[in-house]
Design a protein that fits this description.
Blueprint lengths: L5 E3 L8 E7 L17 E10 L2 E15 L6 E16 L5 E3 L1 H11 L14 H5 L21 H7 L6
The structure holds zinc ion.
Length: about 160
């Protein structure tokens, strides 16, 4: 599997270029940071060329193995970005390598203090020590770990983007 995402710029179609595929997860280089990649970077992108500026929009995702900060259990978590937009100056280039841009976007979405809940799992520590809920509204927080993970995604929106 290739490990770069490269967009050819020669004879670039006026209506834009659609790119779909996968790149080897080793490009993330997160093995030593305790969040090893466990699958490829999947991408579905559309590129537009405006004179010397390349604008790429679309969605990307990549799975990682995280360790719960509370119960230390390992679990898989997929970073999913649906409204990605990146742009780069491609003046004088015959191709644009956007691997580093995509990598950074994904790494920014990796939680610094992962908890089981972000993958829709129930944290054992949370169940054992119910005291965790005492200082909070019982309707929020603990109950946010819905199997669908929907409310969990909402919480991720609050993360700083840059
Ligand atoms: Zn946990």
């Amino acid at each position: 599997m290739k490990s770069r995402v490269i967009i050819p710029l020669e004879e670039f179609p006026e209506e834009g270029l659609v790119l779909e595929g996968e790149a080897d997860g080793s490009l993330f280089g997160t093995e030593e940071t305790g969040a090893p990649s466990v699958g490829p970077l999947s991408y579905s992108l559309e590129a537009q060329l405006y004179e010397t500026e390349l604008v790429v929009r679309g969605s990307i995702s990549a799975p990682f193995l995280l360790r719960c900060d509370r119960c230390l259990r390992e679990f898989e978590y997929t970073v999913q970005i649906d409204e990605l937009t990146i742009s780069c100056d491609v003046k004088g280039k015959v191709e644009a390598d956007v691997t580093e841009e995509l990598r950074e976007e994904v790494l920014l979405e990796l939680p610094g203090y992962p908890k089981c809940e972000i993958s829709g799992l129930e944290c054992e520590i949370n169940d054992t020590f119910c005291d965790f809920r005492l200082d909070k509204d019982p309707q929020s927080g603990v109950n946010s770990a819905t199997p669908s993970g929907k409310s969990v995604w909402d919480a991720l929106d609050d993360f700083p983007q840059k």
